[in-house]
Amino acid sequence: MCYSVVALDLDGTLLLPDRSYDHHRFARLLDRCDELDVRLVIASGRAYSGMIRMFDEPERLAFVGDNGSMIVDRGARVVNVDTLDSDIVSHVLDAIERHPGVTAVISGRRFAWMRRDASPWMHQVMPTAYANLRLVDSLREVDDDIVKFSLTAEDEHAVGAIAQALSDDVGHILTPVTSGHRGIDLIQPGHHKAHGLSLLLAEWNRAFSDVIAFGDSANDAELLAAAKCGYAMANAQPAAIEAAARRAPSNLDGGVFVVLEKVLLHESTFSRAG
User: Fold this and answer.
1) Which of 10, 23, 31, 103 has CA atoms 20 to 30 A from the CA of 116?
2) Class of 86-187 per CATH?
């Protein structure tokens, strides 16, 4: 098998629970990819503005952000941004307000937005995921081009029920997908990580038959299924396991590095473009 594209999820896949990763090991991996003309793509539900702050050389990476709604090639070249109509945003806010145990973060083209009265835990965690986070008294006062809604449930045991209720309410316009860590992403139908990666593949004249991908959550399922070789982490959710062809060690055991370092030892496994 030959691969010329590597696609990595972040939370639960590359990242450890404290949202760290081995920078030295990643740099060696990136250098090896460059030697072989392999494109390394970060595909996450996180906002692009937050993701680039996590990497030492983001200009060498491509990004599928907000679960496929914002696509950026190497060198910070924006390939595509999909925004939501104001009527859809208003309808979704109505639905979210019917779930008092849920806190929403709205990803906009300029900033990410969260209510000022969110819990202390959200105030501690969200700035690490959204580098450009802004606080407002009401999400209805946000003036931005909206890309995605990310929800966090206070009760992790209620995530499934909340996702189902939201699917019944707004599923005709946005698809609720669990993202792990009490999270639910509301994504535009068809605008998942695989869709976002397809736009980059078209730019590069490459195909899903060139892709090896890693993920752990339901929002990785389309990507893992589309890739020539999809790896679900040992800690993965059932939807990711079902979609993937193979299993990798858990993120706690550096599963992404374990697999890719073994594969990269065999240059013939990767293909040079052109």
Assistant:
1) 10
2) alpha beta
